[in-house]
Each structure stands twice: as C-alpha cells, then as structure tokens.
Write a structure and sequence with these properties.
The protein is α/β, with parallel strands linked by helices. It contains seven helices and twelve strands. The protein has a seven-stranded parallel sheet with strand order 4-3-7-10-11-2-12, covered by helices on one side. It has a three-stranded antiparallel sheet with strand order 5-9-8. Helix 1 packs across helix 2 and helix 2 packs across helix 3. The two termini are 25 Å apart. 44% of the residues are buried. Bound molecules: 6-phosphogluconic acid. The site of 6-phosphogluconic acid (6PG) has 16 residues, from strand 5. 6-phosphogluconic acid binds next to strand 5.
Length: 301
C-alpha cells in the first residue's frame, strides 16, 4: 500500500491547504462478478489494516454504505471468525493441515485495533432499514471484536442534519487529534458509486460538492431523493492514505467509464487522494475491459 506524502507531526492529520497532487496511481481491478470483487477488496482491506496497525497501532477506516459493500463486510466478519478459531481450540487435524490453517488466518487483521467511521449516512434512525450503520452492524460490527468506543456512527438522532454533521466532525477531530484547519488522514476510505456517479453522499448538483477545503463533514439535501444526508467531503476523502472503490452491476457501467475518463461532472471522478493510493474494484458488468484497456482484468481460474 503506497503511502507517500507529507504527514503532520501526528501522522493522522494533514493540513487543509496541502498542495493537491494532480496525478494519482490509478489501479483498476476488474473481476468476474460481485463475489470476486468482495473477496479481493477484503484481502486489500485486511492488508491495509495490518500495515496501519504495525505502523501506527490502529487502523482508521471510513466504511461505505449502500448495498455493494455488504458482502465485503460479511467476508471480513467470516475471516475474523476463522481467526478466532485459529487462536482458539482447533479440532485435532494432521500437522500439515493445522499449519496450513493457522498460516491462512495469521494475516487476518486484529479487529480490536480497528477504529470504524462512516463515509456517509442517510438521515434515518440507526435501526432503519436504510441506515448505513445498520447494514454495517448486521454484516460486520456485530461479528467482530471492535471495542464499541471505537465505532463512530453518524448520530442521526442527535439533532438537525447540520447539528449532526457538526457533531460528527467534532468526533473525527477528537479521534484524530486535529488542530485548526487540519483534515483527518484516514488509513482507508471505502466508497461505492451510484449510477449517477455519486459517491458517499456527494451527489451531482448538491451543495456538498462545494464544501470548503477545510470542511471535514457536511449535511446535504438531496432533492431527487427528497432526503437529507451527512457525508465526508472531498477534502477529507482526498486526504486519506488509501481510497478504495467497490463497484458492481451493469447499471454502473456508464458512470464507471465516465469516471475513468476523468469526467469531472461526476462526483466520483473528483476523488483524487493527494498523498494516497486509489484502487477501483469492479466486476465485468460495471466495467468492460474496453472501458479501461489498462485495467487488470482478473477472471476466475
Ligand atoms: C449510500 C452510499 C452511496 C453508495 C452508492 C452505491 O449511502 O447510498 O454511501 O454512496 O455507495 O449509492 O450504492 P449501491 O452499492 O447500493 O449500488
């Protein structure tokens, strides 16, 4: 996981006025289907977690919402369960199988060092079927040993959208030890993308796209959905060490091709980590190899 660029003295923040790099490592990995996308993204997340925990003692991740990441979260939870088995009582197997089994799980991230945030949230209660927090809780958080104090949901029951956004920004500032005008440097921001090219809750034509360079979180009204959202800003996303898109489904094909052509009218195309890596995992429905000839096309063996 490349992690170039200047860190602030704390290593967890970057100044809001940091110069933006114009180019970024574009790593596009195309897989046969959503299951393979989820498996490959899980591998990358666990490796990023391992590196962050070794380097800084913690892994600070912003989870994506929507439906695509659910399978990824379920796989992460299953890997954790495997790890617990490996460190718990393993059924008596022949020596080789035991070694193989333990080696297979040794690299699994230590979830107790994960600090979980959210890239965005729908303005609904935490137990609402549309809640991104509920989806992540059901698929992952209820199944891994992350201390509750290290899970930071966007508390949509804590006031108006603006108040909730301000509260979440304050939580992030506290957890990252930010000074004035500093942005958090997430180890990894996980993103999905809508058919209209939105990402997180940065929708085309909304005020969230125009957030200031030192705004961490904003509330935004999405007229076409007749709803409010709370979202990380481009500035925060682009300050991350690593940004990972997971995209699947033929309905994403036009937007994915446009984003990779750099069509800045689509919000997802404005994700350019200034000092970080950008990886896009997509399935063949969302990204035909014709759309990105240089993509690494990984087909089932
Ligand atoms: C949300 C997400 C959003 C999502 C896209 C894709 O709250 O809806 O954060 O950005 O990633 O809408 O959603 P699907 O994965 O369901 O296609």
């Amino acid at each position: 996981m490349n992690d170039g660029g200047a860190d602030s003295k704390r290593g967890d923040a970057t100044r809001a006025d940091s110069p933006r790099a114009d180019s970024f490592a574009r790593d596009v990995r195309v897989y046969a289907g959503p299951e393979e996308v989820a498996e490959a993204a899980a591998d990358l997340l666990l490796e990023a977690a391992r590196e962050a925990i070794v380097a800084r003692g913690a892994f600070r991740i912003a989870l994506a919402g929507g439906s695509t990441p659910r399978r990824l979260y379920e796989i992460l939870a299953a890997r954790a369960t495997t790890q617990e088995t490996a460190t718990g009582a393993i059924p008596v197997l022949d020596a080789a199988a035991t070694i193989r089994h333990s080696r297979a799980t040794r690299s699994t991230a230590r979830f107790e060092a994960w600090h979980v945030f959210f890239g965005d949230e729908r303005f609904v209660p935490a137990d609402h079927p549309d809640s991104n927090y509920r989806m992540a809780r059901e698929a992952l958080l209820d199944h891994v040993e992350i201390p509750p104090a290290q899970v930071h949901r966007i508390e949509t029951d804590a006031g108006t959208p603006g108040e909730v956004a301000a509260r979440y920004a304050a939580t992030i500032a506290r957890e990252f030890g930010l000074g004035d005008r500093e942005l958090p440097r997430f180890d990894l921001v996980l993103l999905g993308m809508g058919a209209d090219g939105h990402t997180a809750s940065l929708f085309p034509g909304t005020t969230a796209l125009d957030a200031g360079p030192d705004e961490i979180v904003v509330a935004t009204q999405v007229e076409k959905l007749d709803s409010w959202r709370v979202t990380l800003t481009f500035a925060t996303i682009n300050a991350a060490r690593s940004v990972v898109f997971v995209i699947a489904g033929v309905e994403k094909r036009d937007a994915a091709a446009s984003v990779l052509r750099g069509d800045g009218t689509l919000p997802a195309a404005r994700v350019h980590p200034a000092y970080g890596s950008l990886v896009m995992f997509a399935d063949r429905d969302a990204l035909s190899s014709a759309a990105m000839p240089r993509a690494r096309v990984v087909l089932p063996t």
